Amino acid sequence: MKEIRIHGRGGQGAVLAARMLASAFVTEGKYVASFPMYGFERRGAPVVAFTRIDDKPIREKTQIYNPDCLIVIDPGLLTLPTLFTGLRPESAFILNSPKKLPKQPNENLKIGGVVNATKIAVEEIGRDIPNTCLLGAFAAATGWLDLKSLLACLPDYLSGDILQRNLKSAERGYKEVEVTKW
Amino acid sequence: MVIKHKNLFKTENAWSNADELLLCLDTGSWRTERPVLDKEKCNYCGLCALYCPPQCMTDKGDHFEPNLAYCKGCGICAHECPRGSLTMVPEGEFAK
Amino acid sequence: MKAKKGQVKVMTGNAAAAYAAMLCRPDVATSYPITPMSEVAEQLSTFHADGVLDAEMVEVEGENSAMNVVAAASIAGGRAFTATSSWGLVFMYDALLQAAGFRAPVVMAIANRETPGILAVSSGQQDIIATRDSGWIQIIVENCQEILDQIIMAFRLAEDYDIQLPVMVNYDGFYLSYLSEAVEIPAIEDVDKFLAPLKQQPQRMKLRPGVPLGAGTHGIEIGFMELRYKHCQALLRALKKVDEIDAEFKQFFGRGYGGQIDEYRTEDAEIVILTSGGAAGTAKAVVDTKRAEGVKVGLVKLRLFRPFPHERLVKALKGKKAIGVIDRSVSFGWNGGPIFTEVKVLSREIGSMPILSYIDGLANMDITIPHIERVVDEVSAAAQGKPYQEVTWIPLE
Asked: What is the pLDDT of residue B96?
């Protein structure tokens, strides 16, 4: 089983990202379970989304305390003191940031993927909604998901012009993510 | 054999003392825009302070200013000001 | 005869509830939104707007009206569905009691959330407990597929001629209501087939213009007692009916849930953990871990809460060495959780053994794997005769 934790702020699409991720893995034949936890349901307030993937049915209904992968949509959340607590060894870290990662943020991390998803989202979608771009980056950096599975499930959640823009954003995230291995 | 249950808490109060900040939320980080005051228009009526949900409008003697550690950028102060002396300005313009 | 494989879609628990209701072709599907079940109302409205759901969507101004509308529709002979949570459930309390007393077979989805008293927009089973004596049938489910399947079974149960009682299908707010899982949606024709036996039964009474009939009328003395007695008897008949319907569902759709309770690795278990809802899923994972360590532990997942599955629980728990009950609610006035206090009633029949109460998961607190592992360890120690604390509020201690 793989446990992925997505950190974002209300309005950045963290919850939708977790659902899209779940759908994408289902098309690859995996079992999934994904849910968000909001403190306050409003724009700007921190939100966490938990996604589990496995080859057999998932029974656990708890939050994720030992992630195999962290996806951070808002770089401002890097200051969260418990962000890296409980990280599994050889885990992955996907970050939306205009800057590179200066050093290995945590000894348990094996893969780091950084992409300026905000810039790509503003260019492709016209708004700072970096979620689909980061999902593309996730697919590339971890290799756990085929890009085409991700793109195939976007129409379940978006349509029309917005869908096309997000497809481009996801593809760019996939291609432009800078991957570091430690 | 059953162990007798222990008392978990020292006090029996059900109410909490709100002046002893029990919960200190980082509401300032939620903000995407902040109120900016035009001092010329302000007449120190105090309505902004009255309506502010996190009650973060600080009394400066002849006008009020938001405490940016807690201002969540809701815009209610700007909406309620009878003189239109507060304007909501995107945070991006204040980033260094 | 078996149902064909349904379409698989990733959806939330709330969406699963709405799909289930839509598939059962209700005549009236009126809900008032409240966190964390608003999506049920939204999804039903979408189905209606898209022409997929042909039901009366009466726009109500609150949950009390919602229950009045669906209960009335039900006693007029219609199939009725609604959904709510916590505050909404208590706002409709008088109509809730009426629905049961009138024997109106309404089906209601509840995304469980803490009740008023301490403001909490968060998960908890107190709303189930606050309404356990309403006369409704109450069932608690563990995952999104079970939400969908149980609501279909709920219509089959509620409208059964021998039952004619409203049914609540309960699922954890936030932890299940917002949980996205892959859910198999049965074909509507197969759902029609599953509910078809209802049409073969004698038709229940319904109010219609020009025909003098009384429903839930003013009861006096012996007349009241007769109606109350019949209500209680119907609830008791529901026990076996829940098992029968579950077996029929399993035979037809290929998915079964055990009926009144589900037992996981209990046959040779020495100690048993008893819980309900999503936590039962987590507990199954803990049972497997502990079994691998040599602990002979099993899980009883309580599905039917009202009527209380007395006989099946006695059978499952008899002869065990200790039981740990995890409650996601409190029992005001008793020391211990509500399911715990009700399980203790079985003491004489199951044999003298330590029964431990654990209160956890209130107001979105997570019932984690370490929590449940602690329960197994302490119940194990109690089974070996070590001194134990009868009631533990896990997150506080």
From this structure: 53
